[in-house]
């Protein structure tokens, strides 16, 4: 173990961070070609209504029990098209800094204060870049406002909730939590739960497991503050899930489908995550391998230079087993609502599973790197590790290049949408209220205006303030 912290290592970390930032800006650029689509029209119509509260109540009673995602949509709607285009980049940035804060709190909890702060940013960036890039439907999950509001935005709030709980527990010795603190935690959990069911069931499961572990190792007397905070968060999550489950609009969203028998439901819940994990490794192994190797090398170098820690191999194996088991349990919990209602989660609903998987890969690589850093005969590993990090920093740049290449189609679609938007507004200004406009292809299986009436056409007509809109293939101005 060397006590030196060479500038070359700090430079390599900065190089890796630069590469990660490039990949994130490629996502930002791609997101800028997002426009109104499908449910976006219907949601925006709610906030154009003269009686918004009545519209929100009607939505909760007759359409869906989810109550927080529409509030996020309303905030974005204030900025109209600019909100649609730039909200994804803004929320990805917020998620990055929230995960960085969460990583910092975990590092302090494990008494690893001596590790470089840059590590928090790198780990958060790696997790985001690989998760976003390998998501089964990036457009629906992150860029499309209605999809993101249900399956991505709650994860931003969940990350913030976790970071806040750890921070508040760390501060408990100086300023013990008061009633206002517990109320804030409860309301934040209640709000986070209202976006959709998959993150909520994962919140409830992780809360129960965390409280059980704390009770087993020290009990309430030792972990009074943390257990109390977790209990408030758990109560808020359960209350949110019950509100959605018993909401009248939930039956409408499920489409009147018959519930599965208990034995079939349990079998599918247990089997689907296994199929999901096999699919990840079969379809996109490269991002997983990159994340694993990068985590191993980063932790190896950091613990060589900054921290003396000698874990036994049996301890590393135990930690890996715990992490992988927790990953599987959380995937099961997050998939259960979708399996109950749809048989198998839609692509955007599977993103939370990708996130849990990538967290497990990141932690597993970290444990292996920590162990390798203390293998006596592995003294030559530092220069090799630095060289590997330089090579690994190329991959996020390749991700950025791949995403930029994809934007050619996104840009062409956005241009077509802008032209059609101008066409609609021009016809309306001429007093024509029953419109026939150009049809454009749908993007990433998100619904578009059709030649025949459907709910999207109806919502778009209300959005533009006309009687009807039909999209005709091959129409020319």
Kindly name the structural category.
mainly alpha
Which outline best applies? globular
Show unreliable segments. Answer: none
**How far is the first residue's CA from the last residue's CA?**
73 Å
Strand order of the largest sheet: 1-2
Q: Descriptors for this entry?
A:
single chain, 477 residues, mainly alpha, 74% helix
Summarize the structure.
The chain has 477 residues and is mainly alpha-helical. The chain has a domain at 414-472. It contains 21 helices and two strands.
Provide structural commentary.
The protein has 477 residues and is mainly α. The chain has a domain at 414-472. Helices cover 74% and strands 2% of the residues. The chain is built from 21 helices and two strands. It has a two-stranded parallel ribbon. The model has no long low-confidence stretch (mean pLDDT 90). Helix 21 links the parallel strand 1 and strand 2 (468-472). Helix 4 packs antiparallel against helix 8, helix 5 (80-109) crosses helix 6 (118-134) and helix 15 (262-283) crosses helix 17.
Which helices and strands, and how do they pair?
Layout lengths: L6 H25 L7 H10 L3 H11 L6 H9 L2 H30 L8 H17 L3 H6 L1 H7 L1 H18 L8 H15 L3 H20 L2 H4 L1 H23 L1 H6 L8 H22 L1 H21 L7 H30 L8 H22 L8 H12 L1 H36 L4 E5 L16 H10 L3 E5 L5
Parallel strand pairs: 1-2
